[in-house]
């Protein structure tokens, strides 16, 4: 697989990647988040509700596994033919009145979007929920340039008003309960009724009233895209509230920011993904709002249409023969809703725009395992496999996690001048297990281990950094009185 893409070299430089790399090691961040009992309660309630709904609607389809196979095959084929598909999309999107911009990284994408907004003379934009713009840190960049960005998705609005960060791919405010949301609205919305309660319909109406003027006055909208169709130059967004429809139709200028991996060959491919995505994400049979648009149409919708296609490390992932299937992700969040680690730590502990199991592989693949503290993300898993079972496009997340752990170990070896404690232990194990005589000699020490275990027949503490860390939270059963080989000989079978 070539490490160049559309004439752009794939590099491992972490500069300009935006919000992809962790700012602190996962174990450190997770330890802090585990102390938040309210967070764990909110997450457990929300993830279990979504996963139960998903199981119900998935169980209605006899061909669910066939749909998963079709989705995986389609995405694999698209990634294998990605440069050609993107060129085809560019040709068709341009032919229908759109303008295509290519961005190597977050820095370039932010600059392109800022210039496009300034060309309109506007100093504010409305936004459809978009992981890509979160990834590149677009809102923060626009604010630094004097341009106000208003999130219109309810969950994104809650996060923005609360001066918080998203903690879930699908439900960014999943870590907040409705009482916390009410408090945020009372604190941040100037026109809100002071008697506002935490009743969900009231909260939704308050958000609607807050956003209505923005929808009607905005000249520029910024969206993401769930899918791009190469054969027609069509873009598609799925959402649940109708805010996306408002942003995609009312403003004069529409700027879409999309990762290059979202392209599909034909419109027919949507038949599969429009069954997989809503069931896997929200546990619904179909999406409430599906907006599909193709180019500029006189008198209908935006007059100026742009798309910014961002790489931002995706070619790095594409060049990894073991991890490239991570780019098949359709951002449904099903893996997060079944992950026991995510359920207890929440999304903020991952430090990246993409949390949970998919984030634990996607972020290191895009930025490099050595970037910032991304080397700890592949260890944020019990390898239980629930994520693989839930993934609608069959991304084998556990296998990729193990692969990335190997890359992390190799990277650490290259950085160290002296062998680590683990290196020495593994070398000792290699010597012991490579010779029957050496192993037999070491087995003579079994009585010493039983003596150290004492009457409780448990070893509660071992020396060393690794062994000490292991016994800090668990006991080791006392070793047997004799080895299997000694027992075999004693029974006269040797």
UniProtKB/TrEMBL annotation:
Record domain LUD: where: 86-310
The Swiss-Prot or TrEMBL record annotates one GO molecular function as: metal ion binding
* GO BP term, example: lactate metabolic process
This chain's source organism reads: Zhihengliuella flava
Q: Where is this region: Disordered?
A: 471-494
The major lineage groups are:
Bacteria, Bacillati, Actinomycetota, Actinomycetes, Micrococcales
Q: What is this protein called?
A: L-lactate dehydrogenase complex protein LldF
Alphabetical list of Gene3D superfamilies matching this protein = Alpha-helical ferredoxin, NagB/RpiA/CoA transferase-like
Residue ranges constituting the 4Fe-4S ferredoxin-type domain according to the UniProt record: 326-395
Keywords (A to Z) from UniProt: 4Fe-4S, Electron transport, Iron, Iron-sulfur, Metal-binding, Repeat, Transport
Q: Which InterPro entries match?
A: 4Fe4S_Fe-S-bd (IPR017896), 4Fe4S_Fe_S_CS (IPR017900), FTHF_cligase-like_sf (IPR024185), Helical_ferredxn (IPR009051), LUD_dom (IPR003741), LutB/LldF (IPR004452), LutB_C (IPR024569), NagB/RpiA_transferase-like (IPR037171)
Question: What parts of the sequence cross the membrane?
Answer: none
- Looking at the record, the residues that make up the Lactate utilization protein B C-terminal domain are 421-492
A Pfam family per the record: LUD_dom
